Amino acid sequence: MPADINQLHDQARRAIESAETSFADRARDAARYLAEARELGAKPQASAEAIGKSRPWVLALLKWHDGGYKTAVPFPRATRRSVSQADKKKSADPETADLLPRAFDDVVTRLAKLAAKPISELVRTAHAPSELESLAAFLSEVAKAMKMKVAA
Asked: If residue 51 lies in a helix (H) or strand (E), which one and from where to where?
């Protein structure tokens, strides 16, 4: 018996929330369920509301699905490693070479300060949950890359 839109949205939401697999696997499963729901007539805005994500987030998953999952994750900008010629030139300049590590250290310091605050205080001022989840996925990928670099 084919699933209905509500069942597909529920499966997509559970796939996203699962802690048993990688973000890429969860996103791929959610994208598949959202694509099936779309085939049954679900609109992106309705899907977004049903799974607790933004419309652009849902559209990114659907685009990723429709494109055949050509990138490792549906949000490639979060893990992009391309460097422009101008950035390469800047990194060779002694005055700017340490900007990226300093910026990263600043982010880590700010995150540590946030982690010390009560969750209830953060909830009042936080961005959309989907933005925080995207940031968490990005930070997870950075941590993995750093572990691989240390192991090499």
From this structure: helix 44-51
Q: Is the pLDDT score of 126 beyond 50?
A: yes
Q: How far apart are CA 85 and CA 43, in angstroms?
A: 41
Closest to 89 in 3D by CA, of 79, 99, 103, 75: 99
Q: Which residues contact 47 (CB under 8 A, 6 or more apart)?
A: 9, 12, 34, 37, 38, 58
pTM across the whole model: 0.52
State CA 12 to chain mean position distance: 15
pLDDT at 40: 95
The residue written with tokens 């419309």 in the block is 55
Q: Which residues does 66 contact at the CB level (< 8 Å), separation at least 6? A: 35
Residue type at position 70 = K
Per DSSP, the three-state class of 94 is: coil
Please report, for residues 27, 31, 35, 150, the alpha-carbon distance to residue 13 in angstroms, rounded to integers and kept in the order given.
Answer: 10, 10, 13, 35
